[in-house]
Structures are given as C-alpha cells and as structure tokens.
C-alpha cells in the first residue's frame, strides 16, 4: 500500500468549489434526488459550522455558498436556526475565536472560496476582516498559502466588462440523452406543502 501525499492546491480548491456535485452523488446513492429541505438544512449546517469557527454572517454565507439575503431570511423566519446561530457565536466567543484577530483555517477557506468565486484578494480579505499587510506577510512566509491563492485565482470566472455578454455558440444537438451541464442549477425534489389552496 503506497502512501499518498497531501492534495495539491488545485485539488484543494476543486474540493472547496465542487461540494454540490459530491452531495448529489451521495444523495443518489440513497436512491433519490435531494429534497429542497435537505439542501436548506445542509446549508444551514454549513453556516453554523462557519459561525462556530468565528466567522461573521457575511463570511459564513460565503463559506456555505448561500447569498447573504437568504441567510438573513433564515435568521428572521426560522427561530430554531436563529437560536442555533446565537449558540454557535457563543461557542466561538467562549473559545476566543473572532474574525480578523488571527488567521484561522476557516478564514483561509473563506478567502479561497470567495476568490475562486470571482472576488479580488482585497474583497476576500475585507469579508473575513483580515488586514492586507498582515496577510501579505503570511503569504510571503508560506509557499503553500501562495500556491493556494494562485489556484483560487486560476479557477475564478473571468471578469466581465460593461456590455460584455457571454457568447454561447449554437450547436445542433442529436436526439437522445443530453450531457449533464457542468455548472448551473442542481435538481431537487420540491417538498409538498400541507396548505390547501382556498
């Protein structure tokens, strides 16, 4: 049995970005598409995990892959989630974890996810509350950190300029099974609502 070394920077970034397809494969192993509720609960769990590691709501939303307004709506409309979020904040405070004080793996993960999603380094650092000068010193001291940042830059979508529209070439498709779309929306099974129309 041969030992494998640690994953390379590109593999780490791919793992951070491709969580959705992995979850779909795991759910399909159970014999069904994930329900809307399953997806929401998984994202709520991600937000709680990020918050317990000292991240503020905006950074936790990036960690979980959830738009910040959606996170805010969960807080406003779901009292058990709001209580769990407050408990996660208390846990982080009790262990001295707060955003911007020290570089933690949670902050680094958020910086990498934000950058691979299109944010600049300064935007990602602002999101996590980490100072640029201090971060530059860390990058200079760690070739691994520099390699991770380079990998995140390589996979981010190209910047759009004003009036730049994506050009999608027309291709005649043959009838039959279609190739899965590599990016975009995931299929989920909608939960049945108990309310009857009046």
Question: Quick recap of the structure?
Answer:
This protein is mostly helical and 198 residues long. The chain has helices at 9-17, 19-29, 36-52, 57-64, 68-77, 79-94, 105-116, 121-128, 132-141, 143-155.
From the spread of the alpha carbons, the general shape counts as globular
Binned, the helix content reads 55-70%
What is the total domain count? 1
Most strands sheet:
none
Number of helices: 10
* Proportion of residues in β-strands: under 5%
Helix-strand sequence: HHHHHHHHHH
**Which segments are poorly predicted (pLDDT under 50) over 5 or more consecutive residues?**
none
Radius of gyration: 20 Å
Mean pLDDT: 80
In total, how many beta strands? 0
Distance N to C terminus: 65 Å
Structural class: mainly alpha
General description of the model:
By secondary structure, the chain is mainly α. It has one domain. The chain is built from ten helices and no strands. Helix 5 packs across helix 6. The model has no long low-confidence stretch (mean pLDDT 80).
Descriptive key words:
mainly alpha; 10 helices; 58% helix; globular
Topology, please?
Layout: H1 9-17, H2 19-29, H3 36-52, H4 57-64, H5 68-77, H6 79-94, H7 105-116, H8 121-128, H9 132-141, H10 143-155
């Amino acid at each position: 049995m041969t030992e494998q070394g640690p994953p390379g920077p590109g593999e780490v970034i791919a793992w951070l970005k491709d969580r959705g397809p992995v979850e779909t494969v795991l759910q399909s192993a159970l014999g069904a598409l994930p329900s809307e509720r399953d997806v929401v609960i998984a994202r709520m769990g991600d937000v709680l995990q990020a918050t317990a590691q000292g991240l503020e709501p905006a950074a936790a939303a990036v960690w979980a892959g959830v738009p910040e307004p959606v996170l805010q709506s969960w807080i406003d409309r779901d009292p058990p989630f709001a209580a769990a979020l407050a408990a996660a904040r208390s846990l982080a405070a009790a262990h001295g974890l707060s955003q911007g004080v020290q570089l933690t793996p949670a902050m680094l993960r958020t910086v990498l996810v934000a950058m691979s999603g299109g944010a600049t380094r300064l935007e990602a650092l602002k999101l996590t509350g980490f100072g640029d000068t201090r971060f530059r010193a860390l990058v200079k001291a760690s070739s691994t950190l520099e390699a991770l940042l380079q990998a995140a830059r390589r996979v981010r979508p190209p910047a759009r300029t004003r009036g730049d529209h994506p050009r999608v070439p027309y291709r005649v498709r043959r009838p039959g099974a279609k190739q899965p779309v590599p990016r975009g929306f995931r299929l989920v099974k909608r939960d049945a609502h108990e309310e009857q129309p009046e």
